[in-house]
Specification:
The structure is a homodimer. Chain A has helices at 5-16, 34-49, 89-101, 122-127, 133-137, 147-152, 180-183, 222-237, 277-298, 317-330, 345-349, 376-394; strands at 53-56, 62-65, 70-76, 106-111, 167-175, 188-194, 196-205, 209-210, 246-248, 252-255, 261-262, 265-274, 301-304, 308-310, 313-314, 335-340, 355-360. Chain A is of the alpha+beta class. In chain A, helix 8 (222-237) runs antiparallel to helix 9. Chain A is elongated, with a radius of gyration of 23 Å. Chain A starts with a helix and ends with a helix. The mean pLDDT of chain A is 95. Chains A and B meet through strand 8, helix 8, strand 9, strand 10 and strand 11 of A and strand 8, helix 8, strand 9, strand 10 and strand 11 of B.
Chain lengths: 395, 395
C-alpha cells in the first residue's frame, strides 16, 4: 500500500485535538495527564486499525507491535507544559503511516514522559534499562507528585515490558527544535550523532564587603571572578571547538546579591555539549585550568559540584545511510548531515539496538512553545524520506 | 575639666550592654528595638549628668542640648541587625565626653535609624529636611512594619524638632569601616569629603533558547552581554578613575536561570562612588555608551532603571583644618586625609550647617559584623584629636 499523505496529516491533527490549547497549534498534554492518556488510547485504536497489536508497558510506553521481528519506529506523544503539536507527535504519527504502508514489518512506539515531567526521557530510560524502575518511582514532578503515583493512573492498561530483542533497530523522526535547517532553507537533517553533555556547578568564594569603603585593589569580588572566567573561557575554547559545539552559563546565583555589597560568593552552572567525547574532555580540562587561574589571580576559593555527563551517541551507519539515500531522493541538495544538540528517546534506545534519527525544520527554530510549527510540505518530505529509507532497508 | 579617657571607655562599654550579643563585642540594637530605646533613655540620663538638656524629636533623634548657641557633635546609637559595638556609638560617646570636658558649649546628638531599617540615615534625613516626614512614615522595614508605627514606640518622649540654627557646625567621629587606615598602620583619618553615589539597574534582553540546539553564533545570550559589558567597563574606567573611585555589580538576576537554557534576560545593579561629581558623570557616560555598544554587538535590547544619586559632600574647611591640626598633634605622621566611601549622618546635616568627620581604624576593615573592633589606643587617640580640635576652634 502506498503512503497516504492526507491520512498522515489528518492523524497529526487528530492527535493535536487531545490537549489542543494556547495560540497557533499549541498543545498541553504532559505525561499522564487526562489528555495524554486519552491520546494514547486513541493511538492504540489507530494501531489496531493498522494491523498492529497495542501494548502498554508498566510506565505507559505504548507499542504497536507487528507480528514477529520488526523495525521499531516512533517517538513520544506527551508534550511540554506549554508545547507544540509536532514535538514527539510527528515521529509517532509518521511511524504509524509507514507501518500502514510498508511491506516490511514495522512496529510503532510512543514513549512516555520524554519531556521530563519526572526525569529526562523517563519512559525510554526505564525501558532501556538506563533508569531502574524503583529509582524512577521515587522521582517527583514540580508539584511533588511521585512517578509511581502518576503511572498508577495507567496501571489498568499495563501488560508488562516489551522484549527489545524483537526489534532490529529504531528510527525516530523529530522536529529539529533549532534554527539550522530553517535558516539555510533546507528540508531534511540526517542526524550523525546525538551530542554528549557535561554539566557542573562551579563556585567562587571571595570576600563579602562594603561596596563604598572597600578599595578596588583590596576586593575579592565573586562576580568579577565569574566574569573573568567567562571571558577567558570564550577565548580559550576558540581553538578547540567546532561550529557544532555549544557551551552555556545558564544559571547564576550571587550572594548576598545586593547593590551596596561586594559579592562574596557566586555559584553558577557550566554546561557544554559536543558529539566527540574527547573534545568534551578537552573542554573540561580548559574549564578547570581557567577556573583555577582566575581563583588564584583574584584570591577566591574554587569549588566544583558533581560533574553530570551523558556520552555522545553515534547513529547506526546502515540506518543512517538509508536515511541519507532517501533524503537525496526526496530533497536533492536540500538536506544535510547534522548532530542533534537536544536529547531524544533514541539516546536511550541505542543501549538496546541500532538507532538513527531524521529532522525536519522548525520554523524560526522555535520549540517548547505554542508557536512551534513546521511547513506541511516539510512534514510530508520527512515522511517520504522515511518511506524511501524503509524500502531500501527491506531490499 | 580635662577629658577622662577611662570614663569615655567605660561609657562605651555601658552603651554596648544594651543589645550586647553574638561573638566578640557584637551588638543587636536596631532602630526602635527595645534595646535601642533603653539605650537612648540611658544616654539621656548621661546627658543630664553632663549638664545638657535631653531632647527627643518626633523620629527618635536624641539631642543633649547645651544652653544657647553651640557646636553639635555626635553620630548614631542604633546598630545593624548584626552589628559591632562602635559603629555610631563611638561618635556619640566621644561627643558626650567632649561636652563634659570642654569649656566651649557642645551639644550632643544620637541620630535614629542611621543603619537604614527603614530608609538610609532616616533620622538625620528627616531632621535635615532631605526626607519629608510623611514620606518617611510610609517606609516599611523588611518585616513590613511601617516607619510611623515604629516611631510610635517613642511617641511619649517626643518634644518636637530641634531648631538647627542653634548649632554652628557638626563634627562626627566614626570608625572607618574600611581597611585603609588599618592596612597602613595609621591612627587617624580626616575626611575630605563623603563620596557621591550613583546607582541604577540595567537590563539586557536577548533571546531565551535551548542550550543544546542553539548554535553559538545565533545566540543572543543575556549573560554574555553582562559579562562583556563588565569586561569593557573595567577597561574603559581605567583612564578616568582614581584609587578612591569604586564601582560594583552587586546584584545579578538572570532569567530563567536554568542550566539548559540560554539566558534571555539579565537585570543587574551598577553602582559607582566618587568624591567628584564630574567624575561620577563621566563614569555614567562611559556606562551608557558601553552598554549600548554591547547591546548593538550582541543584538539585545537595553533598558535602564531610575538613576539614584547622592551628591558628594565636601567637608567644611575650617572644621576640617581644626581636625587636621589636632591629628598632627596627637598622631604626628600617622594620619591621612581621606574620602569617606560610606554614607554618614554628616551627609544630611551638611544641608543645615558646616560639617566635618574624623575616622579611626577598623581592625581588618571589618564592619557591619559582630567582629567589628578598634584598638583601644586608637579610640583614645580619636577622642584626643576631637579635644584638640574643639579647643583650637574655641581659641
Amino acid at each position: 500500500m502506498a503512503i497516504d499523505h492526507q491520512r498522515f496529516i489528518d492523524d497529526l491533527h487528530s492527535l493535536r485535538a487531545f490537549g489542543a490549547s494556547g495560540v497557533g497549534k499549541g498543545v498541553i498534554r504532559p505525561a499522564y495527564s487526562e489528555a495524554d492518556i486519552a491520546a494514547r488510547k486513541w493511538l492504540a485504536g489507530r494501531m489496531t486499525e493498522a494491523g498492529l497489536t497495542p501494548h502498554f508497558d508498566p510506565v505507559g510506553n505504548l507499542f504497536g507491535l507487528a507480528d514477529g521481528p520488526s523495525l521499531l519506529m516512533g517517538s513520544h506523544s506527551d508534550s511540554q507544559p506549554e508545547g507544540g503539536w509536532l514535538d514527539g507527535a510527528l515521529g509517532v504519527i509518521a511511524a504509524l503511516e509507514i507501518a500502514r504502508s510498508s511491506d516490511r514489518p514495522i512496529s510503532v512506539v510512543s514513549f512516555q514522559d520524554e519531556e521530563g515531567r519526572f526525569g529526562v526521557t523517563t519512559g525510554s530510560a526505564v525501558w532501556s534499562g538506563g533508569l531502574p524502575l524503583d529509582k524512577a518511582d521515587a522521582l517527583t514532578d514540580g508539584a511533588g507528585i511521585r512517578f509511581d503515583a502518576a503511572r498508577g493512573a495507567m496501571a489498568d492498561l499495563s501488560q508488562g515490558f516489551v522484549d527489545p530483542n524483537r526489534f532490529s533497530g529504531f528510527i525516530e523522526m523529530h522536529i529539529e527544535q533549532g534554527p539550522t535547517l530553517d535558516a539555510s532553507d533546507e528540508t531534511i537533517g540526517v542526524v550523525t550523532d546525538i551530542v554528549g553533555i557535561r554539566d557542573m556547578t562551579i563556585s567562587f568564594e571571595g570576600q563579602q564587603n562594603h561596596a563604598g569603603t572597600t578599595p578596588m585593589h583590596l576586593r575579592r569580588d565573586a562576580f568579577q571572578a565569574l566574569s573573568l572566567f567567562n571571558t577567558q573561557l570564550n577565548d580559550r575554547f576558540r581553538n578547540v571547538v567546532t561550529p557544532q559545539t555549544v557551551w552555556t552559563i545558564g544559571r547564576v546565583d550571587l550572594h548576598p546579591n545586593a547593590s551596596s555589597i561586594v559579592p562574596g560568593r557566586v555559584r553558577f552552572t557550566m554546561q557544554w555539549r559536543d558529539g566527540d567525547a574527547d573534545r568534551l574532555a578537552r573542554m573540561e580540562e580548559i574549564i578547570r585550568v581557567t577556573a583555577q587561574e582566575v581563583a588564584d589571580d583574584l584570591g577566591t576559593n574554587l569549588d566544583y559540584g558533581t560533574l553530570l555527563g551523558l556520552e555522545p551517541v553515534a547513529m547506526d551507519l546502515t540506518l543512517r545511510t538509508a536515511l541519507e539515500t532517501g533524503a537525496e531522493q526526496v530533497a536533492p541538495g536540500k538536506w544535510r548531515r547534522m548532530p542533534s544538540g537536544a536529547l531524544h528517546d533514541a539516546t536511550n534506545v541505542s543501549r538496546l539496538m541500532p538507532v538513527a534519527m531524521l529532522f525536519v525544520p522548525s520554523i524560526n527554530g522555535i520549540s517548547h512553545a505554542f508557536a512551534e510549527d513546521t511547513d506541511e510540505a516539510d512534514l510530508i518530505a520527512g515522511l517520504n524520506v522515511l518511506d524511501h529509507a524503509v524500502r531500501s532497508l527491506s531490499g
